Amino acid sequence: MEGGLATEELEIELLLEALFQRFGHDFRSYDRPTLRRKLHQVMQARALNTVSSLQDRVLHDPGAGAALLRALSVQPAALFDDPEQARQLRIVLAASLRASAVPKVWLAECAGPEQAWSLAILLAEEQLHLRTEIYATVANEEMLAAASLASFPAERMEQYQESYFRSGGTAQLADYFDVQDGRATLRASLRNRITWAQYNLVTDASFNEFQLIICQRALPDFGPMLRQRVMRLFHDSLSLFGVLGLDREIADGDELAASYQPVFPHQHWYKRIG
């Protein structure tokens, strides 16, 4: 490793240790190339030349620390921003939840309120919302606080309506929302089915049994050892014949591959069979 890269690698190690010690967020096992790219983007936006200067800013400026945690965390999703995934999810909900008296769904490393709201709307359209509990977990307090106050500009509704139609929706999306002062918020009857909590996939243990676990935006950021740790956590948290929705394939050589079978060909939805 060349001198400059070796120095930067040491700086990154020190920054990640500082984030863990100062804020309690452990990015030390994240995929290093992905992490480096995100750090460089933050440095460029703040006109900083070294990772050490970023560390100094983060440790002494609370706003800079919060901004870096946001940049390293899962980026927010828009309502129905992946119509094909939503189409598949409609099928998965019916197959995985109908047999349970009180089914539970875990949105692990949830990509913001609009991802959770999309799920709540799909549950309503499958007539499952009244008995299904959604647990949406995020890694830091700031994201948790933002979720409880979330809304979006009402003028986005037309754009979201088109994505909703492409996901298989047939209703008027606006019927699921209350609009006040130009801002739209999911109706309380659906919003109340979502429990938000701070949870760290890197360090925390299994906290419930779920019939469906969805983690479709975080895994690419994880290094190999952390991915295996998280996959074991999901296995311990998923009921037999429950469904796991990922953003990567479970490879044949993965430790738990034999415990799952694909729900769809060439897609990343898996039923636990062992």
TrEMBL record:
InterPro entries: Bact_Chemotaxis_MeTrfase, CheR_C, CheR_MeTrfase, CheR_N, SAM-dependent_MTases_sf. Residues 1-246 form the CheR-type methyltransferase domain. It comes from the Bacteria. PROSITE patterns: CHER. It holds the Pfam family CheR. One of its GO terms (molecular function) is S-adenosylmethionine-dependent methyltransferase activity. SUPFAM superfamilies: Chemotaxis receptor methyltransferase CheR, N-terminal domain (SSF47757), S-adenosyl-L-methionine-dependent methyltransferases (SSF53335). PANTHER family: CHEMOTAXIS PROTEIN, CHEMOTAXIS PROTEIN METHYLTRANSFERASE. This is Chemotaxis protein. It comes from Massilia eurypsychrophila.
